[in-house]
Queue: 4 jobs
Job 1
Amino acid sequence: MKSFKDKVALITGAAHGFGRSLAIEAANRGMKLALADVDESGLEKTFYDVKNLGAEAISIPTDVTDEAAVDKMVKQTMSKYNEINLLINSAGIAIPGPIWELPTRDWEWILHADLMSQVWSLKRVIPIMRKQKGHGDILNVASMAGLITSPLMPAYYATKFAVVGMTEAVEYDLQAAHANVGLHVFCPAFVQTDLYHTEKHRPEKYTDNSDPYYSSETFKEGQKQAKIDITTGMPIDNIPKIIFKALEDDKFYILTHPGMNPAIVARANNIPSGKGPDLAALAPFMAETHEVEGDNKDER
Ligand SMILES: NC(=O)c1ccc[n+]([C@@H]2O[C@H](COP(=O)([O-])OP(=O)(O)OC[C@H]3O[C@@H](n4cnc5c(N)ncnc54)[C@H](O)[C@@H]3O)[C@@H](O)[C@H]2O)c1
């Protein structure tokens, strides 16, 4: 069975949420860690927590919306450990808002934070893994929002569909090249993380306080709904174990909300018949966004 002990994990978004919980799980499994995030105080907390678990670790403050910073992050990891065996792309944000109101800068922010950050790290880490002995794994955090759609978050859906499509396409190229690298894409529905704090991580370059959109009812309502969705989501506790088991089992798609499976199938079945999104048909599925994977129900 695949073992991660003594292997090197580079984790983005390590200050909070999935990135932080995966860092702690990786430390418990004896991995050496390179931890990256834009939130330096949150990053420091994760760093000290994994050190207290006995893990070797470095912390690399990084804004993943900046390609030069991603480049530096990979180089710093290599200069410390000289290898990367597991890359976890978990840094990300969520932005609600209808397309006719959401400022273009918010599209640019989410496309860079949730998609281009992963493109830039894959571009650099895949060649490193291919030169190494043994197998490398890469986990791209996407979302259920990369497999089905619902109202109010077009920018989020656009980036998550792009992450799923990009990861699938790269997987073909790796197979054709007989590469020693396995890709995985994580597609959860709502989970209790700090994702509704997205605005705290808005880089200066995407900030314009004079834009009236950020004091509009649409903006405030979006923030309120995001908090409700995330704080009532599935508890995060079992997620890192589900993910590491899926990495060990070489699963490509990693799903945690089986109640959403009929929605994924329904969308796929509608496509050849030309049937498009139907708000009324979606309603029953939305109630399922908080359900935990069948096999793991007892562990809640
Ligand atoms: N929580 C959910 O319900 C849920 C569901 C599906 C998908 N996701 C996805 O999971 C990923 C991780 O989110 P989370 O839920 O753990 O949220 P989170 O806010 O708890 O963690 C995200 C981390 O990314 C960091 N980050 C944000 N912008 C950054 C930047 N520019 N550079 C570096 N780091 C940055 C934040 O500081 C934070 O530590 C996101 O892509 C999110 O879309 C979350």
Job 2
Amino acid sequence: MDQDLTRAETHFAFGRNWAEYAAKITEAEVREAEAGLSRLLGGERLDGKRFLDIGSGSGVHSLAALRLGAREVVAVDIDADSVATTRAVLSRFAPDGVYRIERKSVFDLDPTEWGTFDVVYSWGVLHHTGDLDRALACAARMVAPEGLLVVALYRRIWMDPFWRWEKRWYAQASPVAQARARWVYVTLFRLGLRLTGRRFADYVAAYRGKRGMDYYHDVHDWLGGWPYESISPGEVSARMARLHFTPIRVFARHGRFWGRDPGIFGSGCDEYVYRKI
Ligand SMILES: C[S@@+](CC[C@H](N)C(=O)[O-])C[C@H]1O[C@@H](n2cnc3c(N)ncnc32)[C@H](O)[C@@H]1O
């Protein structure tokens, strides 16, 4: 029988991974998260703005929003461990911030309950909800008139069918089997880097520059990130037009083979900033 993939019980344990990652966060990661958010906002601050973080994960980007001056941050995640981790990170790094954290699915967000937000941010989340199209529409309706929707979504790759199969397996595999899969992945990745003249150690050290993230936690997240969907920039553009949004900034990579990359080591996220009109 087909599972309802919008239910948290069918999902990869994202929150446990975020709890481990968050234990290692320092000011350096927080600064990178702030820089990553600031880049998406075109260098503008969030002074006086209400900010909604859907799928907050570790909470480090909710923290970045507070550091960028947001008047109020609301963070939600479907995973209880992500919610607890977001709470721990905000109380540790922003004890005086104005924020609210709740366990809630994007599908249950209701603008009549909390009002709408100047910025709705959902990085690397909506493709893991089990219904990307509906999740995008639910996130969009939380945006205030003239407000921004900032999302990052997995781009389509030729190996999507393989990764769908792999993630479904990994998400329910034993910790030992998962550790073996990570070893195979990292070994092949190292080999790939060597063949292209790059050093693995340099790659891992520079990884923090990607929004304050950590390579090994991202490997676990990538291999296990189930449910999984992907989308092309053209499809995003059509859906956002239907939802009455206009593009402000798009950071998308165009694949080398008929518009798509093979995706041997996975996909990457394209980032989109849209304004509600
Ligand atoms: C890959 S993580 C991204 C976390 C964070 N946004 C970041 O950029 O680091 C995906 C997160 O989305 C959450 N998530 C998945 N489905 C969700 C849903 N229906 N509603 C809210 N959050 C959801 C997961 O629990 C997980 O914490």
Job 3
Amino acid sequence: MTTLVTGATGSVGRHLVAQLVQAGQPVRALTRRPAAADLPAGAEVVGGDLLAPDTLPAALRGVARMFLFAVPETAQTVVDHAVRAGVRRIVVLSSSAVDDSVADDAVGSFGHAHHRPVERAVERAGVAWTHLRAGEFMLNTLDWAPELRAEGVVRGVNGHFPSAPIHEADVASVAAAALLGDGHAGAKYFLTGPALITPVEQVRTIGAALGRALQFVELTPDQARDLWRRRGMPSEVIEHLLWSPPAPPADGGYAALVRVSPTVAEVTGRPARSYAEWVADHVADFR
Ligand SMILES: NC(=O)c1ccc[n+]([C@@H]2O[C@H](COP(=O)([O-])OP(=O)(O)OC[C@H]3O[C@@H](n4cnc5c(N)ncnc54)[C@H](OP(=O)(O)O)[C@@H]3O)[C@@H](O)[C@H]2O)c1
């Protein structure tokens, strides 16, 4: 039974392809640029563009299961093609930004508006579906690498507010379990890493791996706005990043505000990878 992995050259898709190949599964990997894919030899690399669904029928031939990277503009047509080709199971790379309280005819946040149409198309397809509603990726902190390499600091805001970021390989591990195993149909999995960690602690963890004293420098909102504008960041992204965390409740502090999900361990049978493990996997990027 062949599995088609879309987004196969992406941070999650690349791990998923490798994990499926390692599990001895027939894997087809979709990319817009097959010559540059650089995927494991055991995967069949095929060309195709999710924004141009007419390019997909050959990639879908003989496919029973699909991992779907979110391209909302064409999701409905892509799913229609998949169902016609015989796909019976679809696992969606979605986001914790999806909010089930937002009505179907309302837009919602950027993340909701990007992912929910894809989830909806899959839910209506009459296939077994699983949504991976992933929270923040640990991988986002790769954005710090140029500043850390050059100056040993990261400048930002909310350095003491924690999150529970997830290793991209764990998103892939849950995807592999949902694609290959039973009991995941109809699940909307909220996925996080194993523990809360603040940006200040993340920078310290990178420093420990490098043997360098690195520092998170807290900016005022005006300083941050000014810096990010000069770096060419779009204003809506800047305002999104400049959110003010609520005051920590007296009982439990910030830990009471941020959820750590047990789903990675429950679904895969292994603890979710820690931020220190993620840093060990990416330490060369920070040197
Ligand atoms: N970063 C976060 O904190 C976070 C949190 C929750 C959810 N998410 C969601 O996770 C997803 C990102 O996953 P990722 O990091 O694995 O992705 P990624 O590293 O950005 O890679 C996505 C891959 O998708 C492929 N792709 C893009 N457009 C395509 C198209 N039109 N047709 C075919 N392939 C296309 C590209 O491959 P080719 O160039 O080879 O075609 C690319 O390598 C997004 O939907 C994001 O919203 C992210």
Job 4
Amino acid sequence: MDVYNKRILLTGATGGIGEQIAKELAFKGAKLVLVARDIQKLEQLMSALESPYHHEIISCDLANDESIRLMDCKLKTLIKTWNEGIDIVINNAGHNQFQLLSRKNTGQIYSELSLNLTGPILVSKYAINGWLNQPGLILNIGSTFGGIGYPGYAVYGAAKSGLYRFTEALNREMHGSNIKVHYLAPRATKTRLNSQQVNDLNSELGNHVDTPDYVAGQVLKMIHTEREYCWLGWPEKLFVRVNQILPGLVSKSIQKQLPTIYRYMTTSGTK
Ligand SMILES: NC(=O)c1ccc[n+]([C@@H]2O[C@H](COP(=O)([O-])OP(=O)(O)OC[C@H]3O[C@@H](n4cnc5c(N)ncnc54)[C@H](OP(=O)(O)O)[C@@H]3O)[C@@H](O)[C@H]2O)c1
């Protein structure tokens, strides 16, 4: 899909990856609705974009059902004003806390599940029922950890793998309509999502870390080519495949890393 002149709702727009996606989309002539919680950061981002007057901002807590319902109301009002709907939804907002499950409190568990899984599901439902054009595209941003269960990311992995299956099921459910649902899974990327402990762990394990502008470029490419699924990075995308067929092999390789992972996890504070 060509993004020129398309209306695109982008969640997590002020984050490391979101900001780069917003800049590239605006540069290519898309009209954006930027979503995050911090209104000041949204305003700053909007004014820094190409053609700021083409864009809108909405403050929304995507881990909160009522806040998402209010966003749906605002979008319906905007759509009446524009007299046109939204063409693309990018469910990009996400968060994780690298920690043993036994050390997480119930609130943290629910908040990770809500933001990374329930939020995109609700946004997709409101979009389909109310304001997504046909042809329309929903692009869900997942993670390598949605394809490989990894220590320290049990809840995040559960949410992102759930998001993957949700994408697959909804895409099949919508077959015959003109709405497509796709999934892009970045590997480690240099943003503030990752604590210093996680950056140090990646560096000690020799894990490659992508730049946000690389990931944003892949997002644009995926929209352009309408590719359904994309796992970023070698060898991560290979491990995701191997994990489906021979999970024991991947477990053995992760077991070797466990002492290092535990060392960084025990010093990891809450974000
Ligand atoms: N960075 C990585 O290593 C990595 C790897 C694989 C996948 N990903 C995925 O890529 C996506 C973008 O991540 P990122 O690295 O760019 O993260 P980031 O830099 O931490 O940005 C997170 C964005 O989400 C927004 N956000 C956080 N909590 C929210 C909430 N409750 N409601 C609404 N918005 C909320 C933040 O804005 P406010 O705080 O103002 O709300 C911010 O705009 C996520 O889905 C993440 O899971 C990242």
